[in-house]
Amino acid sequence: MEVKKAGASLDSVISLFNRRIAELQDLVIARNMYPESSVTDLSAVDAAVKTMELQVQAIKDRLRDETLAIPKAKKLIDAAVKQQKKLQDLSSYVPSHIPERMSMLGLVTNRCLFPEGSQQNTGFGSLKLEEVPAALPKEKKGRSTPPLWFITAEELDSLSGYMRGRLTVEKINAAINDMATYAEANSQLISAPKKRVAGDSWEKALELRDIAMTEAVKGKHFFLETDMKGPALKPDNTGKAILTVLRHLGRVSETRIGPHRVIILLKRH
């Protein structure tokens, strides 16, 4: 009985050894089945892994740079917002519509200084007009330009709704530009010699000179109510409302000299 058990145990051990030998043989066969390609495949995998590692490192570096740049970007954004606020504040002082002041002034001066029925041709007339400033150095030397003291949105908002009406900052500032144009045209007409003033404008030039010598107007830029011919300031209800607002805001003052209503431009204090 014991001999049979011992024989069975020996057979079991032999069987296990044979099975292990077979497995080792299979592993050796699998190992040596593709000896050349196995090395190549492993090298390619190693190269791919190294490439991925480099890419991951590059991504980490870029993220680090972006993180460091965030505070600088925030500072730039804050500076841009402050600059935008400054520009918005400045824009409230500038009208959206500013006519070509010198071209309008040239048109008014041309009408006043040269008769329409003149025998001069166009080319000669333009030449004479260009020579006017050079011919009047004494009058021009001590004469300043009319003040352009525009209003702000805050000033307009400070007025009562009844006085403000439908007026806007743009409309009022465009009217201020017109007033400076009228005043400059009158200033040139006052200082122009008789030979350069059109016949139908000489009487107005004399009236303007008399007005300019009065105590209330002397040394100041002014225009007459009859000068209000646009494009922004006209003798209508809107024009009267604009003058009322500008008087209240200290941009102009008014006086009556003879039959004329005289509007005086005031300078910034």
TrEMBL record:
<dbReference type="GO" id="GO:0000940">
    <property type="term" value="C:outer kinetochore"/>
</dbReference>
<dbReference type="GO" id="GO:0008017">
    <property type="term" value="F:microtubule binding"/>
</dbReference>
<dbReference type="InterPro" id="IPR042031">
    <property type="entry name" value="SKA1_MBD_sf"/>
</dbReference>
<comment type="similarity">
    <text>Belongs to the SKA1 family.</text>
</comment>
<dbReference type="GO" id="GO:0000278">
    <property type="term" value="P:mitotic cell cycle"/>
</dbReference>
<dbReference type="InterPro" id="IPR009829">
    <property type="entry name" value="SKA1"/>
</dbReference>
<dbReference type="GO" id="GO:0005876">
    <property type="term" value="C:spindle microtubule"/>
</dbReference>
<dbReference type="GO" id="GO:0051301">
    <property type="term" value="P:cell division"/>
</dbReference>
<dbReference type="Pfam" id="PF07160">
    <property type="entry name" value="SKA1"/>
</dbReference>
<dbReference type="GO" id="GO:0007059">
    <property type="term" value="P:chromosome segregation"/>
</dbReference>
<dbReference type="GO" id="GO:0072686">
    <property type="term" value="C:mitotic spindle"/>
</dbReference>
<protein>
    <recommendedName>
        <fullName>SKA complex subunit 1 homolog</fullName>
    </recommendedName>
</protein>
<dbReference type="GO" id="GO:0031110">
    <property type="term" value="P:regulation of microtubule polymerization or depolymerization"/>
</dbReference>
<keyword id="KW-0175">Coiled coil</keyword>
